Amino acid sequence: MAPLVTMDRARAAVAAALLAIAVVAYWTLRPGVTPQPAAGAPQAATHNAASRDPDGVDLSDSQLAAVKVGPVEEREFPVEKDAVGSIGFNEDMTVQVFTPYQGRIVALFAEVGDDVGKGQTLFTIDSPDLLQAESTLIAAAGVLELNSKNLARLRDLFTTRAVSQHDVEQAASDQQTAEGNLRAARDAVRLFGKTDADIDTIILKRSADPTLVVPSPITGRITARHGAPGLYVQPGNEPAPYTVADINTMWMLANVTETDSPAFRVGQQVHVKVTALPGRMFDGKITTVAASVDPNTRRVSVRSEVKDPQHALRSGMFADFVISVGAPVRSPAIALDGVVREGDGTTTAWITADRRHFSRRTVTIGQERDGYRQILSGVQVGELVASEGALFLSNTLSTASR
């Protein structure tokens, strides 16, 4: 009988223990009751897990060395519009050099790319018109000389009454007519570019030179040459033997979007950056804004005159243009290293109050100037931000999330 009593007592003890566990579990896990940590469990870990900032990171002392903190500053930013276009010759200062009279080209004295001065010979032609004018000049000079001698002779005879007064007066009239014809002949030859010294030489030597010299009408650079020795040319017949452009100023030719076009006005300042000349800036101003919109591209042509005293720009160069369209504005600004372009396309900055915990905040950015990015919204002047190391903070948050 003793073994049976012992077995019953053991079963009763197990049942009591199970009942006690069930009661504890019910009171612990029933709805509305928060489980309490076991005795000795770290309370801080539970608190940090519950209050963690999903867009924030806490840096250790070693990590803080990679981040620089500074207040948001207020800086001045110009109101500007960007455009892309190309450089072209100033067509208002570009001249097509035609021959003033017909003839065949004898020689050419300049190549494309040469810099020439005003009055410098570009080419010569064998001109029958010049030959005719010089021949008339020589004949007029001969007639004047003959009439002058005849008048002198008749005046001498008149003193002895060998000739009548009428004969002397007629000789004087013929001499004056010959002088007028000579002046007209000299003017005709002068139209071909001959100087008074050249004309006197022609009269003295009684020799006509049919070579017509065609000079450059302006100081500039040869931009095109279509002439060749032996080519018969006529006034105004294209293409011109030479084209000369004044390259002290060049044109900026840009096509801006239709929506941006109302902001552009004649006289606005333009700053030009050329890809081929990094680090250099060229200044100018808008001279023309097209009166119509291109129906195919929905863009408006804007032309500016750009100063180039060192002749560094060349026609056809691609360039970026920044055009001032209003007075400068003052806005909050963050250093470039303090702004991050996230993978989803948003732009963020990192805000801190204690220089250890950093929170990511989405911002709207504007222009870039002198190493700072304009902030249109998202932060206020005076807030502490990560001015350097913002990318490090974003990578740290991304790593922690994964």
Walkthrough of the structure:
With 402 residues, this protein is α+β, with helices and mostly antiparallel strands. It has 4 domains: 56-77 and 329-401, Beta Barrel (conserved putative lor/sdh protein from methanococcus maripaludis s2 fold); 82-91 and 247-327, Efflux pump adaptor protein, beta barrel domain (Elongation Factor Tu (Ef-tu), domain 3), CATH 2.40.30.170; 97-126 and 214-246, RNA polymerase II/Efflux pump adaptor protein, barrel-sandwich hybrid domain (OB fold (Dihydrolipoamide Acetyltransferase, E2P)); 128-209, Helix Hairpins (Orthogonal Bundle). The chain is 30% helix and 35% strand. It has helices spanning 2-29, 43-51, 61-64, 128-159, 165-190, 196-205, 390-401, and strands spanning 56-58, 68-71, 73-89, 94-97, 103-108, 115-116, 121-126, 211-215, 220-225, 232-233, 242-245, 249-257, 269-274, 282-289, 299-307, 318-335, 340-341, 347-352, 357-369, 372-377, 384-388. The strands form 4 sheets. The protein has a 6-stranded antiparallel β-barrel with strand order 3-12-15-14-13-16. It is rod-shaped, with a radius of gyration of 47 Å. Residues 1-7 and 23-51 have low confidence and may be disordered.
List keywords for this structure.
conserved putative lor/sdh protein from methanococcus maripaludis s2 fold; 7 helices; OB fold (Dihydrolipoamide Acetyltransferase, E2P); alpha+beta; Elongation Factor Tu (Ef-tu), domain 3; 402 residues; 6-stranded antiparallel beta barrel
